Amino acid sequence: MTSSPDAQAAAVKQAQQALMAGDFNDAARQLDAVLDAEPGHVDARYAASVCARYRKDYPAAQAHLAALKRVAPEHGRAWQEEGHLLREQGKLDTALSAYQQACRFNPALIASWRAQAELLAARGDTAGAALAQGQVDRLSALPKDVVAVTDLLADGKILKAEQLCRAFLQKHPRHVEAMRLLAEIGVRLGVLDDADFLLESAVEFEPDNIQLRLDYIQVLRKRQKFEAALAQAQSLYERDPENPVFLSHLAIEMMQTGEYDRALDLFDRVLSILPGDPLVLTSRGHALKTMGRQDEAIASYRAALEHKRDHGDAWYALANLKTYQFSAADRAALAELEQTPGLPHQDQIHICFALAKALEDGGEYASSFEYYARGNELKRVQARYTSEQMAEEFEAQKSFCTPALFASKAGLGAAAPDPIFIVGLPRAGSTLLEQILASHSQVDGTLELPDILSLAHRLRGRNKFTDRSRYPRILEELSGDQLRQMGEAYIENTRIHRAGAPFFTDKMPNNFRHIGLIKLILPNAKIIDARREPMACCFSGFKQLFAEGQEFTYGLEEIGRYYRGYVDLMRHWDTVLPGEILRVQYEDVVADLETQVRRILDFCGLPFEPACLDFHKTDRAVRTASSEQVRQPINRTGIEQWRHFDAHLNPLREALGPALTGYRD
Q1: What's the whole-model pTM score?
Q2: With the C-alpha atoms ordered 504, 510, 513, 517, is the resulting torsion angle positive or negative?
């Protein structure tokens, strides 16, 4: 009865009906059958926890919730149910915390907001109770369909949320909260153009709606419209120059436009209003790190931890410096924190990765791998990545990006020779190559620009789930004018990152999946493939917790299959675009820097400059995990580090297959 997904869904629905009818024994029987067949069934596990609470079997209810949060740590209703369970047992402080987490993950949970208002009022926190009650009143005033969209989004049911939201907006085209939600859906689906338009329109309808403006700033930033984002942040700041939220957003936008000194001044102003705020201290540390002021960055991160010992972001920021050495006391504190009950999921992830790095530096490799694996497992729960879908994407590029396609559209894009794309896998040495090139007088080093990925998203269109090959198939249909306009738009939109040099780098590694698109819209662009030995590259990626994206790195098998697909796709590009891509092997750069530097500069048509050999002396902002490493002379330290973990890496070897030895072919 409960073997197929449809049968399981039907059984859960019947159990829910039995719950509403008060037949708890029948509900429990049906739910147990589903969970026997599928222990990770989210809806069944949630209903089982409710059923156990109704039966006053509190230990069973807590066990179901613990199991549910392992597979769905950000399930808002699970946290709400935990709040109900704790409240029934008189554990009011922990119940309040659970309700707060519930609303963090699902802001549409009116029962959790109401419970917060009641609990806060009972403890005498009238201000907090008023804020929670304000959310109750706001949600109560919204149309039910709009609340339902928020609920669906929180449960990850994005396509259902989009369908309901669009239907509502057809009847109520100027409802700004529905517009805001549809924009959020657009962001999650990667349709940033639509999100931008929706929020711009909504802000015109309600210019005093602060949440709209905050969302709009984030979308503008994602679209690399940094000047527009800065203008919006400046507008909020001018409304209330002492508002710490507005000050923080302005500081972040200043960082995006390279105004780090002004950003630091703003962070200091926030700290004068909110002394010891761990989020602000951590953001301040990130700015200092990017500027190369490592000692000050460390001090800012440590200050954040003094005020909030379990602030995972600050612990991981220290680890992510790569050069920071954790003390024995640090390792003990991290180990204790990792075992803390109720630690938020994101803090668990950060602390696992930080503890793994601390143990690795201390030579405790078996324990270190245990925590790297645990951190990756926690992160993988949040990801939607599958190797099968990525393999389909690779095959689609090979099928449609053919010699005939490039021959039919030769020279039709924008003629600008400015961009130098550095592609490959993360942790393959791309930051080193960027730093070498940025040390040349004719090259501006920028960052990992998302423009090509955003263009690919737009070309995929709205049916990317049902028509996965629309892009790159659509490349055949694009006219010369369209290709030229796309290339010119790329040049114009990236100008904000440049400082006047004739050439600039774009080191978004994932652009290797879109080399066909790049060469169609920018036929004179240079492309460098930064490659690293597969075991070292993949394990370095497995050890890294990325700010966003790169979801293929959170499993040894996944990253091995991705590397294998990358090598295969690059072989295809070499075949259909002969001579257009320079492969640079990281190990060769380490072994003979000058030869490889001259080779890179020759490929880019640049004269040799000695500064490129002294890249570590170049003073510039570096925003990647390798920022501190490229400020030091080149060394061989990292080449063989993976061998300390060799006994644990058989799944990676098997996934790499022929790429394990054929990566140089």
Answers
A1: 0.83
A2: negative
